[in-house]
Design a protein that fits this description.
Elements: H1 25-34, H2 52-59, H3 67-72, H4 82-97, E1 100-108, H5 110-127, H6 134-147, E2 153-156, E3 159-162, E4 168-170, E5 172-174, E6 177-179, E7 182-183, H7 191-206, H8 212-215, E8 220-224, E9 243-247, E10 250-257, E11 260-274, H9 280-295, H10 298-302
Parallel strand pairs: 4-8, 8-9
Antiparallel strand pairs: 1-11, 2-3, 4-7, 5-6, 9-11, 10-11
Helix pairs in contact: 6-7, 6-9
Length: 304
Amino acid sequence: MANENTTEPKKKKYIPPKTKQHLSPSVRKIVKEKNIDISNIEGTGKAGRISKSDLINLMGDIPQPSKRKITHGLEEKVKMTRLRITIAKRLKEAQDNAAMLTTFNEVDMQNIMQMKQDYQDDFKKKYSIKLGFMSFFVKASVVALKNFPAINAEINNDHIVYKNYYNISIAIGTDRGLVVPVLKRADELSFSDIEKNIYLLSEKAQKGKITINDLQGGTFTISNGGIYGSMLSTPILNPPQTGILGMHNIVERPVAKEGNIVIRPIMYLALSYDHRIIDGKEAVSFLKTIKECLEEPRRLFLDL
């Protein structure tokens, strides 16, 4: 009986489609290090792969002019809005009339982030609003302002006017410019009330419906540059107030805890203050109080 030689048919080699952008390790490294957008590159390598020469050729491409340059020319002259003129005058006034200084600290946000994660669903279900960071910062600021009343004061000629009420101005960025509506009597508001009122003020600001009354009566300001990715800044005073707290973005950083290096979500804080009536010791202690309240948020519920 004759032997039958059976051989399996050769499988065709799979060639990945160009759209999957299969890269060699060396090319992948360059793309990652240089943050190169390869979505529109036609690879000239085998099976459409992107090669090193493709990347080098890309680096020689002349960038297209911006759309704004095409539509408006090299320069354009636009009259400032009344809001922008007002903002400019007030910021310049703050620099001219105050002895402004800034002090910094950092805060470990882990406990607050854990609280948000643990209670967010129940909080939203009960109060119909999300639990955000701002309510914690408002509460912590009120605690610190009560301990350091000069930061909740203003100068009136040769007098210091101490405010025994706590109206927190919240800086809100809009398409038309920065507005700073006031959260009235923040010391008398619950966490849910703070979140609801901030939401309503933000909605009014975005829709251009902020009134003069919404902007008046603030005693201390909080500005959150972190929502735009700011790592650190020196906020400018909001006259006639003598203090402003700057929040920034939260970044995981290595920190030392009990002799060990651990990763924690860290936010840098900045306090700009009027050195004419606030000493450095008060400013540093004020910011340290805010840090302590935020790192142990249970203090805010116990009024410590």
